[in-house]
UniProtKB/TrEMBL annotation:
ATP binds at G9, P10, T11, G12, I13, G14, K15, T16. The keyword Nucleotide-binding applies. The gene is miaA. It comes from Chryseobacterium defluvii. This is tRNA dimethylallyltransferase. The record marks S100 as: Interaction with substrate tRNA.
């Protein structure tokens, strides 16, 4: 039986380092399920692995697309499984890493056959958005599906429109529909998480944003301003700086909003992962001994 070790956890907690250490130990390769790191023009703002890190272990799905490429989660599921099958031909164990919850889920369980968008519903919801703002959509979703509301990016109107449309069409909570495992995968999954006290995590996130600014996030965002309407750039770290370029916010405020929105995203990730009972946790700042113990524990999870 082949093994997929999936490294999960909130943004800024150190998943990249752990994934590389595991890949080196098992002499294997890494598949990214971080949907923001797919785009080659967004290296700094998505904290993509550095050149040095990429040289330590082979990575797949890092900087493989342009922000102008359309790429859906369904396409990713297909591509990632194909790549996994290729890697399993030469390795018994492969590492998956990333904080995009639905993308990890797509690889581990498959996506559900959700209905296509209903034009009438979309129109009705667009009218609500235009007349009452995104808050009204948030309110509707919270009533219809509090579980999904707790983990969705409530500032992303497309996600809200999609979820409400599907609930209206199927009369079933969106969270329930995406929780059903579709087709079993023929590999063994071992999920590893990193955790830290919330204050420590938030502190790391704030420091990481400062480092991104030092590394040139402002210039990176300026170079992408012409694409700001694209979905790939409707994301933390870029949308705030676009408001600074537009003269809506000053730079200090924009940076403080990046920190705040990054912390919010981490909070949603924590909510999502907390629901899982199959994640084995390592504490942030783990020692070599902790890592050795983890390797030992992983070996007990391998299925022949």
């Amino acid at each position: 039986m082949k093994n997929l070790i999936s490294v999960v956890g909130p943004t800024g907690i150190g998943k990249t380092r752990l994934a590389i250490d595991l890949a080196k130990h098992f002499n294997t390769e890494i598949i990214s399920c971080d949907s923001r790191q797919f785009f080659k023009e967004m290296k700094i703002g998505t904290a993509s692995p550095s050149e040095e890190e990429l040289a330590e272990a082979p990575h797949h799905f890092i900087g493989n697309l342009s922000v102008q490429d359309y790429y859906s989660i369904g396409q990713y599921e297909e591509d990632a499984l194909k790549k996994l099958n290729e890697l399993f031909e030469k390795h018994d164990t492969v590492i998956l890493v990333g904080g995009s919850m639905m993308y990890e889920k797509a690889v581990l369980e498959g996506l559900n056959d959700l209905p296509e968008a209903n034009a009438e519903n979309q129109e009705k919801l667009q009218d609500i958005l235009d007349s009452d703002g995104i808050e009204k959509l948030q309110e509707i979703l919270k009533i219809l599906d509090p579980e999904y509301y707790a983990v969705v990016d409530i500032h992303n109107h497309r996600r809200l429109l999609r979820a409400i449309d599907v609930i209206w069409q199927t009369d079933t909570k969106y969270s329930e529909q995406i929780a059903v495992s579709q087709d079993s995968r023929d590999f063994n999954v071992i999920r590893i998480g990193i955790e830290a006290p919330r204050e420590e995590l938030y502190d790391r996130i704030n420091r990481r944003v400062d480092m991104m600014m030092e590394k040139g996030l402002l210039e990176e965002a300026r170079g992408l301003e012409e694409f700001k309407e694209l979905t790939a750039l409707n994301t933390v770290g870029y949308s705030e700086l676009f408001k600074y370029f537009d003269g809506e916010w000053d730079l200090d405020f924009a940076v403080s909003e990046i920190k705040k929105n990054s912390r919010r995203y981490a909070k949603r990730q924590l909510t999502w992962y907390r629901k899982a009972d199959d994640i084995h946790y390592l504490q942030l700042g783990y020692s070599q001994q902790d890592f050795d113990n983890l390797i030992e524990w992983i070996s007990t999870q391998f299925q022949n």
